[in-house]
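retry 2 of 3: previous attempt timed out while embedding protoporphyrin IX containing FE. Reduced batch size to 1 and resubmitted. Inputs unchanged:
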Amino acid sequence: MQQRTLDSIRVNWPAPDNVPADRKVDLSWALGMTPNDLVDPYEPCGWLSGNSIPHLLFNPAKPDGNAGFGAAGGSRGTWVATHYKDIERVYSDNDCFSNKGTAEFQRMIGETFRSIPLAIDPPEHSKYRLFLMPHFSPSRINKMQDQIRGVVVEMIDEFAAKGEVDIAWDFGRVFPVRIFMSLMGFPPAMFEQFLDWEWDILHSNSMEKMSAALRGVLDFLRGFIAEKESIPDDHLVSAIVHGKIEGKPLTDDEKIGMVWFLWLGGLDTVAATISQMFRRLALEPEIQHQLRANPELIPSAVEEFLRTQPILSSGRLVKQDFEWHGVTLKAGDMVQCLNPSGNFDPTQFADPRRFDMTRKGNRHFTFVAGVHLCLGAPLARRELRILLEEWFTRIPDFRVKPGTNTSVYPFLLSIRNLPLVWDVTTHP
Ligand code: HEM
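retry 2 succeeded.
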């Protein structure tokens, strides 16, 4: 793949008056919509956190109207932060940046409720975060540990003796979604329908399909909330529906806003991470050997998988005019943080492209930073750790099945199929 340079991505497209010409670039290729077949699929973005790259680039909306990175800021286009310290500020400085409108796909079909807690700014955010936190605390996750291990072991045992599994479709897609659905109390029969809806919302690129999926999922969730109102159970949706914040029951908008965002944020983020993790393990067998020999490194290896495969990049809205890095940001401007660039910033990570499972102080942005740090991160980490622990005691060295296309979209739902094979030893 040809290495891009700043000059090769510069564009001359129209942009708002506050954008200097030398900051205008086309980063549509950096959003994860362009597949590649590299062992480290995020490599094409790494150079953007280099020393010679201006702090704060700007991606104008494409003049031909095609959705690209610039589309994140509507017709104005978007600023893009690519250096670690800048990304850290955007995620943490709640006086200058807002989460209003983040992940609020529901607006497309005229819904007015907010996505809770993601689209809520401090200080209001903390009451929702505090309300949800006990359900994701370490002690709560400890209680789920046996169930997580049980599902992993049961699933691996089903295919171990066959010497083959499609790790993306038959395992990665299924295991975390089963855990998530049981946490929430959703009926297992909805599994395929949920994944279809999510695919249409995030990836169909068709307004018609997105709208139909949004209508489908919101109708279902509202019906499910009504059901839990009359028949409570021990799961999270029921706890939300019957919960109180600051002594008051939740409003209908708060209930649907919370259940909807958990559905969106929790459904398949771990699935995408698993598929990419096994792709890397298969393509770089040295990592397998190191982990097999040093299972105590599994927690720090999980952190390194997360750092090197940030499946999301997030944006924030500028709240007020201010000067930063020689430009004026205007209230209403959008700033996108390019996590796959910040996670490889050489000023923060020594030898950033190297997969180093002994790396210390691995403060990456895969779960962002600041008050919106992923609430499900402890659950995701636990699932990934347990999976690797059980996998390496049951499955010998593995590789990608010959003839497989290993191209990946470095983003959510990034690889649909990834058959892996290993040698099965039969005892006489
Ligand atoms: C490897 C898996 C996961 C990744 C990479 C991930 C990533 C993220 C990111 C990047 C954000 C912040 C978005 C932003 O600020 O714009 C976020 C927030 C959030 N995530 Fe996750 N997530 C994962 C798993 C989960 C799971 C399993 C759940 C729930 C079961 C979950 C629930 C949430 C919630 C509730 C928030 C909002 C937190 C707040 O606004 O205070 N996530 N996640």
